[in-house]
Specification:
Blueprint (H helix, E strand, L loop, with lengths): L11 E7 L3 H12 L6 E7 L6 H7 L8 E5 L5 H10 L7 E4 L5 E2 L4 H8 L11 E9 L5 E4 L18 E4 H6 L12 H11 L3 H5 L2 E11 L3 H4 L1 H16 L3 H20 L1 H13 L1
Helix pairs in contact: 6-9, 9-10, 10-11
Protein backbone atom coordinates (compact mmCIF):
# COMPACT_ATOMS: atom_id res chain seq x y z
CA UNK A 1 0.00 0.00 0.00
CA UNK A 2 1.19 3.53 -0.65
CA UNK A 3 0.08 7.11 -0.37
CA UNK A 4 -0.50 9.36 -3.34
CA UNK A 5 2.69 11.03 -4.47
CA UNK A 6 2.94 14.79 -4.00
CA UNK A 7 1.91 16.86 -6.98
CA UNK A 8 4.83 19.29 -6.65
CA UNK A 9 8.28 18.70 -8.13
CA UNK A 10 10.59 18.76 -5.09
CA UNK A 11 14.32 19.39 -5.28
CA UNK A 12 15.06 16.70 -2.67
CA UNK A 13 14.07 13.04 -2.48
CA UNK A 14 14.76 10.88 0.56
CA UNK A 15 14.73 7.07 0.30
CA UNK A 16 14.31 5.20 3.59
CA UNK A 17 14.42 1.42 3.83
CA UNK A 18 13.26 -0.39 6.95
CA UNK A 19 12.42 -3.81 8.35
CA UNK A 20 10.93 -4.27 11.82
CA UNK A 21 12.52 -1.05 13.05
CA UNK A 22 9.54 1.09 14.00
CA UNK A 23 11.50 3.08 16.56
CA UNK A 24 14.20 3.92 14.04
CA UNK A 25 11.63 4.84 11.39
CA UNK A 26 9.95 7.24 13.82
CA UNK A 27 13.33 8.85 14.50
CA UNK A 28 13.88 9.40 10.79
CA UNK A 29 10.32 10.70 10.37
CA UNK A 30 10.73 13.25 13.17
CA UNK A 31 13.97 14.46 11.55
CA UNK A 32 12.25 15.00 8.20
CA UNK A 33 9.10 16.47 9.73
CA UNK A 34 11.21 19.10 11.51
CA UNK A 35 12.86 20.38 8.32
CA UNK A 36 12.28 24.08 7.68
CA UNK A 37 12.55 23.38 3.93
CA UNK A 38 9.56 21.17 3.09
CA UNK A 39 10.45 20.74 -0.60
CA UNK A 40 11.13 17.00 -0.44
CA UNK A 41 9.58 13.69 -1.43
CA UNK A 42 9.93 10.88 1.16
CA UNK A 43 9.99 7.31 -0.13
CA UNK A 44 9.76 4.45 2.37
CA UNK A 45 10.51 0.87 1.34
CA UNK A 46 9.39 -1.51 4.07
CA UNK A 47 10.25 -5.20 3.89
CA UNK A 48 6.86 -6.37 5.22
CA UNK A 49 7.50 -5.44 8.85
CA UNK A 50 5.41 -7.06 11.59
CA UNK A 51 6.10 -4.53 14.36
CA UNK A 52 3.46 -1.88 13.63
CA UNK A 53 5.42 -0.12 10.90
CA UNK A 54 2.59 -0.39 8.36
CA UNK A 55 0.02 1.03 10.79
CA UNK A 56 2.38 3.92 11.53
CA UNK A 57 2.88 4.67 7.83
CA UNK A 58 -0.89 4.54 7.27
CA UNK A 59 -1.37 7.04 10.09
CA UNK A 60 0.81 9.56 8.26
CA UNK A 61 -1.50 9.76 5.25
CA UNK A 62 -2.21 13.42 4.64
CA UNK A 63 0.42 14.62 7.12
CA UNK A 64 1.02 18.23 5.96
CA UNK A 65 4.64 18.14 7.10
CA UNK A 66 5.81 14.74 5.88
CA UNK A 67 3.58 12.34 3.95
CA UNK A 68 5.47 9.20 2.92
CA UNK A 69 5.18 7.51 -0.46
CA UNK A 70 5.52 3.94 0.76
CA UNK A 71 5.31 0.30 -0.07
CA UNK A 72 5.48 -2.76 2.19
CA UNK A 73 6.35 -6.17 0.78
CA UNK A 74 9.09 -8.80 1.21
CA UNK A 75 12.41 -8.02 -0.44
CA UNK A 76 15.74 -9.75 -1.00
CA UNK A 77 17.83 -7.54 1.25
CA UNK A 78 19.01 -4.00 1.86
CA UNK A 79 20.29 -3.26 -1.66
CA UNK A 80 17.28 -4.83 -3.34
CA UNK A 81 15.15 -2.49 -1.22
CA UNK A 82 17.30 0.50 -2.21
CA UNK A 83 16.84 -0.38 -5.88
CA UNK A 84 13.08 -0.40 -5.27
CA UNK A 85 13.50 3.09 -3.87
CA UNK A 86 15.31 4.21 -7.02
CA UNK A 87 12.46 2.84 -9.12
CA UNK A 88 10.03 5.06 -7.18
CA UNK A 89 11.92 8.30 -7.75
CA UNK A 90 9.90 10.96 -9.49
CA UNK A 91 10.68 11.58 -13.15
CA UNK A 92 12.09 15.07 -12.73
CA UNK A 93 15.65 16.02 -11.74
CA UNK A 94 16.24 15.95 -7.99
CA UNK A 95 18.92 15.31 -5.39
CA UNK A 96 18.50 11.89 -3.78
CA UNK A 97 19.78 10.62 -0.43
CA UNK A 98 19.43 7.15 1.13
CA UNK A 99 18.54 7.83 4.77
CA UNK A 100 17.60 4.55 6.40
CA UNK A 101 15.44 3.94 9.46
CA UNK A 102 17.24 5.29 12.53
CA UNK A 103 19.31 7.82 10.59
CA UNK A 104 18.56 11.54 10.73
CA UNK A 105 19.40 14.74 8.93
CA UNK A 106 21.86 16.70 11.03
CA UNK A 107 19.45 19.45 12.10
CA UNK A 108 16.20 21.10 11.12
CA UNK A 109 17.89 23.41 8.59
CA UNK A 110 19.91 20.76 6.73
CA UNK A 111 17.84 20.88 3.52
CA UNK A 112 17.70 24.67 3.64
CA UNK A 113 21.48 24.91 3.95
CA UNK A 114 22.03 22.50 1.04
CA UNK A 115 19.63 24.53 -1.09
CA UNK A 116 21.50 27.74 -0.18
CA UNK A 117 24.71 26.24 -1.59
CA UNK A 118 23.10 25.07 -4.84
CA UNK A 119 23.38 27.44 -7.83
CA UNK A 120 20.25 29.56 -7.99
CA UNK A 121 17.53 29.86 -10.61
CA UNK A 122 18.91 30.18 -14.09
CA UNK A 123 21.36 27.34 -13.59
CA UNK A 124 20.50 24.74 -16.21
CA UNK A 125 20.76 21.76 -13.88
CA UNK A 126 21.33 20.62 -10.31
CA UNK A 127 24.86 19.55 -9.28
CA UNK A 128 25.63 15.96 -10.25
CA UNK A 129 26.68 15.02 -6.72
CA UNK A 130 26.59 16.84 -3.39
CA UNK A 131 28.23 15.59 -0.21
CA UNK A 132 29.08 16.78 3.28
CA UNK A 133 30.18 15.75 6.75
CA UNK A 134 28.47 13.34 9.15
CA UNK A 135 27.85 12.85 12.85
CA UNK A 136 28.15 9.32 14.21
CA UNK A 137 25.76 8.24 16.99
CA UNK A 138 26.91 5.41 19.24
CA UNK A 139 24.64 2.99 21.09
CA UNK A 140 25.34 5.01 24.26
CA UNK A 141 24.04 8.13 22.44
CA UNK A 142 27.45 9.78 22.15
CA UNK A 143 28.02 11.88 19.04
CA UNK A 144 31.28 12.14 17.11
CA UNK A 145 32.00 14.18 13.96
CA UNK A 146 33.23 12.50 10.79
CA UNK A 147 34.66 15.04 8.38
CA UNK A 148 34.45 13.99 4.75
CA UNK A 149 37.44 13.34 2.57
CA UNK A 150 37.37 14.90 -0.91
CA UNK A 151 35.75 12.90 -3.69
CA UNK A 152 38.96 12.45 -5.68
CA UNK A 153 40.14 10.19 -2.83
CA UNK A 154 37.32 7.72 -3.37
CA UNK A 155 39.78 4.99 -4.40
CA UNK A 156 40.76 4.78 -0.73
CA UNK A 157 37.20 3.98 0.34
CA UNK A 158 33.98 5.79 1.16
CA UNK A 159 34.72 9.49 1.60
CA UNK A 160 31.83 10.06 4.01
CA UNK A 161 28.80 8.17 5.23
CA UNK A 162 26.37 7.16 2.50
CA UNK A 163 23.68 9.18 4.30
CA UNK A 164 25.70 12.36 3.63
CA UNK A 165 25.76 11.86 -0.15
CA UNK A 166 23.14 13.26 -2.53
CA UNK A 167 22.98 11.92 -6.10
CA UNK A 168 21.38 13.61 -9.10
CA UNK A 169 18.33 11.47 -9.98
CA UNK A 170 18.47 12.34 -13.68
CA UNK A 171 22.00 10.94 -13.91
CA UNK A 172 21.01 7.80 -12.00
CA UNK A 173 18.21 7.27 -14.49
CA UNK A 174 20.14 8.23 -17.63
CA UNK A 175 23.09 5.99 -16.73
CA UNK A 176 20.81 3.22 -15.39
CA UNK A 177 22.85 2.87 -12.20
CA UNK A 178 21.58 0.44 -9.58
CA UNK A 179 22.99 -1.17 -6.45
CA UNK A 180 24.79 -4.43 -7.23
CA UNK A 181 22.84 -6.87 -5.08
CA UNK A 182 25.52 -9.55 -5.00
CA UNK A 183 27.48 -7.42 -2.52
CA UNK A 184 26.54 -7.91 1.13
CA UNK A 185 28.00 -4.71 2.57
CA UNK A 186 29.77 -2.53 0.01
CA UNK A 187 27.23 -2.00 -2.78
CA UNK A 188 26.99 1.62 -1.67
CA UNK A 189 30.71 2.06 -2.37
CA UNK A 190 30.35 0.34 -5.75
CA UNK A 191 27.33 2.51 -6.59
CA UNK A 192 29.19 5.72 -5.70
CA UNK A 193 32.34 4.75 -7.61
CA UNK A 194 30.40 3.88 -10.77
CA UNK A 195 28.28 7.03 -10.44
CA UNK A 196 31.27 9.38 -10.16
CA UNK A 197 33.39 7.57 -12.75
CA UNK A 198 30.48 7.89 -15.18
CA UNK A 199 30.47 11.68 -15.00
CA UNK A 200 31.86 13.73 -17.85
CA UNK A 201 34.78 16.07 -17.12
CA UNK A 202 32.40 19.01 -16.98
CA UNK A 203 30.02 17.23 -14.63
CA UNK A 204 32.89 16.10 -12.39
CA UNK A 205 33.97 19.73 -11.99
CA UNK A 206 30.46 20.56 -10.75
CA UNK A 207 30.57 18.04 -7.89
CA UNK A 208 29.85 20.03 -4.74
CA UNK A 209 31.33 19.48 -1.29
CA UNK A 210 29.57 21.46 1.43
CA UNK A 211 31.58 21.74 4.67
CA UNK A 212 28.58 21.21 6.93
CA UNK A 213 27.08 18.27 8.78
CA UNK A 214 24.43 16.54 6.66
CA UNK A 215 23.37 13.57 8.78
CA UNK A 216 23.41 11.74 12.08
CA UNK A 217 24.38 8.15 11.37
CA UNK A 218 23.45 5.34 13.76
CA UNK A 219 26.55 3.22 14.41
CA UNK A 220 26.42 -0.53 14.88
CA UNK A 221 25.10 -1.60 11.47
CA UNK A 222 26.22 -4.58 9.43
CA UNK A 223 29.08 -2.68 7.76
CA UNK A 224 30.64 -2.09 11.16
CA UNK A 225 29.91 -5.57 12.50
CA UNK A 226 31.47 -7.27 9.46
CA UNK A 227 34.41 -5.01 8.68
CA UNK A 228 36.57 -7.77 7.18
CA UNK A 229 33.93 -8.71 4.62
CA UNK A 230 33.44 -5.04 3.80
CA UNK A 231 37.16 -4.57 3.20
CA UNK A 232 37.24 -7.60 0.89
CA UNK A 233 34.28 -6.33 -1.14
CA UNK A 234 35.82 -2.86 -1.41
CA UNK A 235 39.09 -4.46 -2.57
CA UNK A 236 37.22 -6.30 -5.34
CA UNK A 237 35.36 -3.14 -6.36
CA UNK A 238 38.56 -1.11 -6.37
CA UNK A 239 40.31 -3.63 -8.64
CA UNK A 240 37.36 -3.78 -11.03
CA UNK A 241 36.75 -0.03 -11.29
CA UNK A 242 40.22 1.52 -10.93
CA UNK A 243 42.69 -1.25 -11.88
CA UNK A 244 45.26 0.18 -9.43
CA UNK A 245 48.84 -0.95 -9.03
CA UNK A 246 49.82 -3.57 -6.47
CA UNK A 247 51.56 -0.86 -4.41
CA UNK A 248 48.39 1.24 -4.18
CA UNK A 249 46.34 -1.81 -3.20
CA UNK A 250 48.90 -2.72 -0.53
CA UNK A 251 48.95 0.81 0.91
CA UNK A 252 45.16 0.95 1.07
CA UNK A 253 44.95 -2.50 2.65
CA UNK A 254 47.57 -1.64 5.28
CA UNK A 255 45.88 1.63 6.16
CA UNK A 256 42.47 0.02 6.45
CA UNK A 257 43.88 -2.83 8.51
CA UNK A 258 45.41 -0.38 10.99
CA UNK A 259 42.17 1.59 11.17
CA UNK A 260 40.23 -1.63 11.78
CA UNK A 261 42.51 -2.66 14.66
CA UNK A 262 42.21 0.76 16.25
CA UNK A 263 38.43 0.76 15.89
CA UNK A 264 38.22 -2.69 17.45
CA UNK A 265 40.50 -2.18 20.44
CA UNK A 266 40.45 1.60 21.01
CA UNK A 267 37.55 3.50 19.42
CA UNK A 268 38.73 6.79 20.92
CA UNK A 269 42.20 6.38 19.44
CA UNK A 270 40.59 5.40 16.14
CA UNK A 271 38.59 8.61 16.00
CA UNK A 272 41.68 10.66 16.92
CA UNK A 273 43.79 9.07 14.16
CA UNK A 274 40.96 9.50 11.67
CA UNK A 275 40.75 13.23 12.41
CA UNK A 276 44.50 13.56 11.84
CA UNK A 277 44.30 11.68 8.53
CA UNK A 278 41.30 13.70 7.36
CA UNK A 279 42.99 17.01 8.14
CA UNK A 280 46.19 16.05 6.27
Amino acid sequence: MMTDQPSSQPVFEVVTITLDNLGGLKTTYESLKAQTDKDFHWIVIDGDSQDGTKDFLKSLSGDPNCTPDWISEPDKGIYHAMNKGIDRLQGHESLVVFLNAGDELANQDTLKHIRDWIPHEGSKTLPPFVYGDAIEKTVSNCHFPKISKLHHKLIWGMITHHQAMWYNSRLIRDKNIRYDEHYTISADYDFTVRFLKGLSDGQYKDVLYIPEFFCRFQCGGISQRKRQLGRKEQHDIRKACYNPSFLILYMISARQGLANLCARFSPRLSRYIRRIIQSS
